[in-house]
Prior knowledge:
This protein has helices spanning 3-23, 27-38, 44-51, 57-94, 111-125, 139-142, 175-183, 224-239, 291-296, 313-321, 334-337, and strands at 129-130, 136-137, 168-169, 188-197, 209-219, 244-251, 254-263, 280-289, 305-311. By secondary structure, the chain is α+β, with helices and mostly antiparallel strands. The strands form two sheets. It has a seven-stranded mixed beta sheet, sandwiched between helices. It is elongated. 30% of the residues are buried. The protein binds zinc ion (ZN). Zinc ion (ZN) is lined by residues 264, 266-267, 271-272, 274-275, 279.
Amino acid sequence: MKLQEFIEKIAEIEARAASLVAEATSTATLDAARHSLVGRKSGALTAMMKELPSLSPEERREAGAAVNRVKTTIEDALDTRAIDLSSREASSATADLTMPARRQWKGAKHPVTLVIEEIEDIFRELGFTVALGPEVETEWHNFGALNFPPDHPAMDMHDTLYLESGLLLRTHTSPVQIRTLQSYEPPIRILAPGNVYRRDFFDASHAPVFGQIEGLAIDEGVSFVDLKATLTQFANRFFGSTRTRFRPSYFPFTEPSAEMDVECTLCKGSGCPACKNTGWSEILGSGMVHPSVLDASGVDSERYTGWAFGMGPGRAAMQRYGVPDIRLLYDSDMRFLEQFA
Ligand SMILES: [Zn+2]
């Protein structure tokens, strides 16, 4: 065989290989193609390699290089196609198109988070900004600056979680008021949401850690009228058009102090077990900021006055969504939480 003829023949095999590989639609037909091209016994290219000794030694080198190059090209093409076909066959073999689709998981915000965000939105429209503070506090920020007398029962070890260093876990969000008053000049209008800690048993209406949200407004000439107007506006927005009432109360850090009630949303004031037959639900504590609190924070109590309120978003969520047991808010039970998605 002449070199020219040899080169032409392997070029023919290369072209045939390309079309055989492209036309193979199953691993079986591809195996047959592999056999006819590079099979050890009857492969067309194998047969050509057996022809090499019939060439002259000079021609043999060139022909050998050419046949090796074509062999590599053909084997690469066969291997690539084999991987492609076998993965396609594997996936079509296991796909059951009649199987029902798996339900998609959809996350949702916790009901207490929803309530906090709604309260923040209402107060943001009224000019309040959100302020945050540490959950580990000094006794002074948590009690002293807030006008608690030194022997107040709340400071007892039985009610407050103290840390070894003399610090404590804040029992309310009110230390954020002190930290804000120390850092900023009035006018101040803040909303302080966050977790607080008490040594309470974990039962249907108590938890040792719970959310609180607090508001503070300080400026010149602020009076109880501003407190009442703002909180009534809030109650109307949050609970729908409902009646409110203020009852005298006592907190060390406000004077005068008042509890605000809204008409029971379940019985519309006629009395039911949820409102203990009073027709009213207690929603927040409020009052005019005590001058001692302003003085302790370095704010001139002769020039500035203000009001504050505090409420539990957990209780508000229970009321809003009719949740009978506070522990449901902590259980992370998907059957409960999914209802808020
Ligand atoms: Zn009621």
